[in-house]
């Protein structure tokens, strides 16, 4: 179930409500309209019945929006090809007053086009009884066609007064994958009993192995399948496997488990179509509450509403050491805890839990001189701390351009080459959060225990923006574990925005590609000599190869021309855009590959350069004592028997995994620390305070 709470922290908000209200279920229609009290509206969107068909096939892909005062406060997931959808999603909304009704609007999702309106209704909040669950049936209408029958929406609502006490609210935020690209927040209170509290109860490790006998969605009798996973707010999208009904993905990723009893993972399979909406192949679910902990489960899931199976490996493990606490003066307990951490990652414990590479502690102290995002000349800043797919938030400091958070965040490090991202946002109750600034800090560049003022950068991390943030960071890790981790696939961020076509980005990637090509000038001269007929046999061979390539391209062009006549104008535009994006991404990948090789030898990251030297020295010593043919034999046996020894192992190339940790030139600029103004020095600040 989706627990999308559009909650703005209730801190510092005095709440007054009519004291004559009977909390045993009296209607609040008599509440004065000027009542400034806060109310919490808990809504369960149950299902829809007999909704309007908006697609050619006589179905729709409905989703629901909730609006109060023209502001969107909730959006449901999309139920594909269903006129009687079942959502069972929960929304938790803070309502400032009851004069504004809740508007419910239903739309049909259309990929790449404007979504079709399917009807609307409204709920008068003044007619609800306080503290009593109420089932509501709403008839959908279209104002332009009031006589049309558009179906009904079933809800369950509870309206409760909100007490106005101060609360320390820590918020967990995600970036939505929806097209609106809005930020939604989920409140999460710190424990009042424990000084530190775990924010998630466990980790769900998922390996997508393969698909079997999937439904053919294309005219050639094949599909281009990919899979989407969803657990609460968390989402993951697999790579696309072209032209196959039995795809082999071999992808691994993790979800955070917040509920003690588990949860439901929603899985949908899709066929990728260029220039038009992707085709739905089928769906299935995994009930985590039925799986035992600390054990790997192989699941073969039958796709509903379609054909075929998906094969997964699912493992539930205990929570990693991730916590939030208040910043306090060093105590003996803290010193003792640090000694235990140092012992845990000592060189003597190399083979103990290889996935646990190290420990990160981030103290978010304060920020100064932030940008004013509100019309009052102030901001309501809060801070997001991200390490790969782990995200934690501070509380919000209202109406302040120099906020003090004084929070301590701890993370487990799975990859020492990860980058810590700290972003400052302005909280807005009715809209998505406004960006104020961001810094990206590679873990290997951190100086332990030093409080530093970091200049905030823009979204692209290419230049400064207004304000600085004060952080104190400690990194403790085992160097041997970190080195071994470098040779396995890098963890992918599964909520990154998809690349969009950008003329500036395309030009930049082309220039980067051009620089890499210039390194291969000697090879280009060699190719050019083939056309100068310095060596007739070689030139003749080159001529034959090029002629064959040109003939193939002409045949493909003829086929494309015939196919394009059948496509509409809009499909052509989307197809061209996707090709341009693909070219843009390919240029970026090729240029980054060349830059990473260069930066390895440039000692951009000393740890990686030393690791390469140690590996080459070790290989040289091995070659001195062991003949090369035996090494190649052992390597070949290992590669060919890998699938027999571990059938579901994820394929990887150690050299490419190593290079993926080396930053490209673009990343070097993004991670470069800007020099703050001398007036922002922590030492100078202390002197000024003493003065």
TrEMBL record:
<keyword id="KW-1133">Transmembrane helix</keyword>
<dbReference type="InterPro" id="IPR013583">
    <property type="entry name" value="MCTP_C"/>
</dbReference>
<dbReference type="GO" id="GO:0055037">
    <property type="term" value="C:recycling endosome"/>
</dbReference>
<keyword id="KW-0479">Metal-binding</keyword>
<comment type="similarity">
    <text>Belongs to the MCTP family.</text>
</comment>
<protein>
    <recommendedName>
        <fullName>Multiple C2 and transmembrane domain-containing protein 1</fullName>
    </recommendedName>
</protein>
<keyword id="KW-0472">Membrane</keyword>
<dbReference type="GO" id="GO:0005789">
    <property type="term" value="C:endoplasmic reticulum membrane"/>
</dbReference>
<feature type="domain" description="C2">
    <location>
        <begin position="184"/>
        <end position="301"/>
    </location>
</feature>
<feature type="transmembrane region" description="Helical">
    <location>
        <begin position="607"/>
        <end position="635"/>
    </location>
</feature>
<dbReference type="GO" id="GO:0005509">
    <property type="term" value="F:calcium ion binding"/>
</dbReference>
<keyword id="KW-0968">Cytoplasmic vesicle</keyword>
<keyword id="KW-0770">Synapse</keyword>
<keyword id="KW-0812">Transmembrane</keyword>
<keyword id="KW-0256">Endoplasmic reticulum</keyword>
<dbReference type="GO" id="GO:0046928">
    <property type="term" value="P:regulation of neurotransmitter secretion"/>
</dbReference>
<keyword id="KW-0677">Repeat</keyword>
<feature type="domain" description="C2">
    <location>
        <begin position="23"/>
        <end position="138"/>
    </location>
</feature>
<feature type="domain" description="C2">
    <location>
        <begin position="335"/>
        <end position="456"/>
    </location>
</feature>
<dbReference type="Pfam" id="PF08372">
    <property type="entry name" value="PRT_C"/>
</dbReference>
<keyword id="KW-0967">Endosome</keyword>
<dbReference type="Pfam" id="PF00168">
    <property type="entry name" value="C2"/>
</dbReference>
<keyword id="KW-0106">Calcium</keyword>
<dbReference type="InterPro" id="IPR035892">
    <property type="entry name" value="C2_domain_sf"/>
</dbReference>
<dbReference type="GO" id="GO:0030672">
    <property type="term" value="C:synaptic vesicle membrane"/>
</dbReference>
<dbReference type="InterPro" id="IPR000008">
    <property type="entry name" value="C2_dom"/>
</dbReference>
């Amino acid at each position: 179930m989706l627990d999308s709470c559009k909650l703005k922290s209730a801190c510092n908000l005095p709440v007054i409500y009519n004291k004559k209200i009977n909390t045993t279920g009296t209607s609040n229609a008599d509440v004065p309209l000027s009542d400034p009290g806060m109310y919490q509206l808990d809504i369960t969107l149950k299902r829809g019945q007999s909704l309007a068909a908006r697609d050619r096939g006589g179905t729709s892909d409905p989703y629901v929006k909730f609006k109060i005062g023209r502001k969107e406060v909730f959006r449901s997931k999309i139920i594909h090809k269903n006129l009687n959808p079942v959502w069972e999603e929960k929304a938790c909304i803070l309502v400032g007053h009851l004069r504004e009704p809740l508007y419910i609007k239903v739309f049909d999702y259309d990929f790449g086009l404007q979504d079709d309106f399917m009807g609307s209704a409204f709920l008068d909040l003044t007619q609800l009884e306080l503290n009593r669950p109420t089932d509501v049936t709403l008839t959908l209408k279209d104002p332009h066609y009031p006589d049309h029958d558009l179906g009904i929406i079933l809800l369950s609502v509870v309206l409760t007064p909100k007490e106005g006490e101060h609360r320390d609210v820590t918020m967990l935020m995600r970036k939505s994958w929806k097209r609106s690209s809005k930020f939604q927040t989920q409140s999460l209170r710190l424990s009042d009993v424990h000084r530190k509290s775990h924010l998630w109860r466990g980790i769900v490790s998922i390996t997508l192995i393969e698909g079997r006998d999937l439904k053919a969605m294309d005219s050639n009798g094949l599909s281009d399948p990919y899979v989407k996973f969803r657990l609460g707010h968390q989402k993951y999208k697999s790579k696309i496997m072209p032209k196959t009904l039995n795809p082999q993905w071999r992808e691994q990723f993790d979800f955070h488990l917040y509920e003690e009893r588990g949860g439901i993972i929603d899985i949908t399979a899709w066929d990728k179509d260029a220039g038009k909406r992707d085709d739905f192949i089928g769906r299935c679910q995994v009930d985590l509450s039925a799986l035992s902990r600390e054990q790997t489960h192989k699941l073969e899931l039958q796709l509903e509403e379609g054909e075929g199976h998906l094969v997964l490996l699912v493992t539930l493990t205990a929570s990693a050491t991730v916590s939030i606490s208040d910043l306090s003066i060093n105590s003996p307990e803290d010193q003792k805890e640090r000694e235990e951490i140092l012992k845990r990652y000592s060189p003597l414990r190399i083979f103990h839990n290889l996935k646990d590479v190290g420990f990160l502690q981030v103290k978010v102290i304060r920020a100064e001189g932030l940008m004013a995002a509100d019309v009052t000349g102030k901001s309501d800043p809060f801070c997001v701390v991200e390490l790969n797919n782990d995200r934690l938030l501070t509380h919000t400091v209202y109406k302040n351009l120099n906020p003090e958070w004084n929070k301590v965040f701890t993370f487990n490090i799975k990859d020492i080459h990860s980058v810590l991202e700290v972003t400052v946002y302005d909280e807005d109750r009715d809209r998505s959060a406004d960006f104020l600034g961001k810094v990206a800090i590679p873990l290997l560049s951190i100086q332990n225990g030093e409080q530093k003022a970091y200049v905030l950068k823009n979204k692209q991390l290419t230049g400064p923006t207004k304000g600085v943030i004060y952080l104190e960071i400690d990194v403790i890790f085992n160097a041997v574990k970190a080195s071994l981790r470098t040779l396995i696939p890098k963890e992918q961020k599964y909520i990154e925005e998809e690349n969009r076509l950008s003329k500036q980005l395309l030009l930049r990637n082309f220039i980067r590609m051009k620089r890499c090509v210039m390194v291969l000038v000697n090879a280009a001269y060699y190719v050019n000599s083939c056309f100068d007929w310095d060596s007739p046999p070689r030139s003749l061979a080159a001529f034959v190869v090029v002629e064959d390539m040109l003939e193939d391209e002409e045949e493909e062009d003829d086929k494309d021309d015939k196919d394009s006549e059948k496509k509409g104008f809009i499909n052509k535009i989307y197809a061209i855009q996707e090709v341009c994006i693909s070219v843009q991404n390919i240029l970026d990948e090729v240029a980054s590959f060349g830059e990473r090789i260069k930066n390895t030898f440039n000692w951009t990251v000393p740890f990686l350069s030393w690791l390469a030297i140690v590996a080459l020295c070790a290989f040289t010593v091995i070659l001195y004592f062991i003949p090369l043919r035996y090494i190649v034999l052992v390597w070949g046996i290992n590669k060919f028997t890998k699938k027999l020894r571990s059938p579901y192992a994820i394929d990887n190339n150690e050299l490419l995994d190593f290079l993926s940790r080396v930053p490209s030139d673009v990343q070097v600029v993004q991670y470069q620390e800007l020099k703050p103004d001398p007036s922002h020095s922590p030492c100078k600040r202390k002197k000024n305070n003493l003065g």
